[in-house]
Amino acid sequence: MTSFEHSSRTRLVFGPGSIHQAGRQARELGFRRTLIVADSGMEKAGHVATVLSGLAGEGIESSPWSNFDANPDSRMVEHGRDFAAKLKVDSIIGLGGGSSMDCAKAINIVLTNGGAIQDYWGHGKVPLPMLPMIGIPGTTGTGSEAQSYALISDGETHVKMAIGDDKAAFAVAILDPEVALTQPLAVRATAGYDAISHAVETFVSTKRNAISMCYSREAWRLMDRSFERLLSDPLDVGAAADMQLGAWFAGSAIEASMLGATHALANPLTAAYGITHGQAIAVMLPHVVGWNAQPEYFELHMDLPGRLRDLAGAAGLHGSLSALHVAQERLAELALAAAQQWTGRFNPRPFDAAAALELYRCAF
């Protein structure tokens, strides 16, 4: 029996067209001057304009900011903090992929508590209250809208820092599958596979519990049946709804549990080679599942490594490190970095540099 605590800090608003509720939700939270952290894709798709219009209709001033990229780092967070401070904002909206929402959380932390984002690496290091936030995911991926964590790279070392605090949870998350339909095919593939990995890893984490396993199980059920559909039919709103809600459940599972070796192995690949996170996950996840060999995997699929390879193949994701031009002579170096990643501590099978090297070699 595993002891645990669980609380839901975020109100979920789900359904087609729900982005149009952003103004009302913001008014109910007392927003008056709002920073909208949104990636350029959200602006091009018209979603930033939709949110701006909804806020204006409620008498709320708002300013968009997009000076960040797919792997937000500490320097981008500083730029965002300076932009927000000049505007004297009292609230923040994260609109887009995980980078938008992680950036929104990180900007909020340094804006309200001072210092540099590196000062908050870890969990529970935010002493002062933060501004209220709304998260509106534009992808079917990270589940950041369901979590109190942000993943930010150090601008100098490129090391990914997991920064978490209960205060960093969104007050409201708005999930609109019609918004998710506008994500490019490549983003559907990588973000969707990342969300699938969240369901798989949280299901066997050493911190798993009765609540997290419910989230993981439902996340897998929704995404296993809909990932390939969303890839093949760009207008399948039902598949988008399944994937978006599945990503939410998987993100909630992370919040209640934790990830494992796959994410520990993926982060050094992104830092050293710039490999997209979801692609790095797709290379490593089937090998980690096979290496862990946990009986719980059979509850998800009788041949889970095979199913995960099939899903990666359907998404057009590479299945080996060699195909991604990773140098074999650097595997030992990457393994040492992987062993230092926080998520590896929660893998069901003990994970260290030797294990990481074995897994990288299997994936090569």
Main sheet summary: 6 strands, parallel
Secondary-structure content class: alpha/beta
Q: Looking across the biggest beta sheet, what order are the strands in?
A: 1-9-6-4-2-3
Count of DSSP E strands? 9
The amount of beta strand, in percent, is 5-15%
- What's the shape? globular
- Order of secondary-structure elements: EHEHHEHEHEEEEEHHHHHHHHHH
The low-confidence runs, each spanning 5 or more residues with pLDDT under 50, are none
Mean pLDDT: 95
How far is the N terminus from the C terminus?
38 Å
Radius of gyration over all CA atoms, rounded: 19 Å
Number of helical segments?
15
Helix content range: 40-55%
Tell me what the structure shows.
There is one protein chain. The chain has 364 residues and is of the alpha/beta class. It is globular, with a radius of gyration of 19 Å. It has helices at residues 22-28, 40-44, 47-57, 74-87, 98-113, 177-180, 185-204, 210-232, 237-256, 261-273, 277-292, 297-300, 304-314, 331-339, 353-363, and strands at residues 11-14, 33-38, 61-65, 91-96, 122-123, 133-137, 149-153, 160-164, 172-175. Strands 1-9-6-4-2-3 form a 6-stranded parallel beta sheet, with helices on both faces. Helix 7 packs antiparallel against helix 8 (210-232) and helix 10 (261-273) crosses helix 14. Helix content is 51%, strand content 12%. Strand 7 (149-153) and strand 8 form a beta hairpin. It is built from 15 helices and 9 strands. The mean pLDDT is 95.
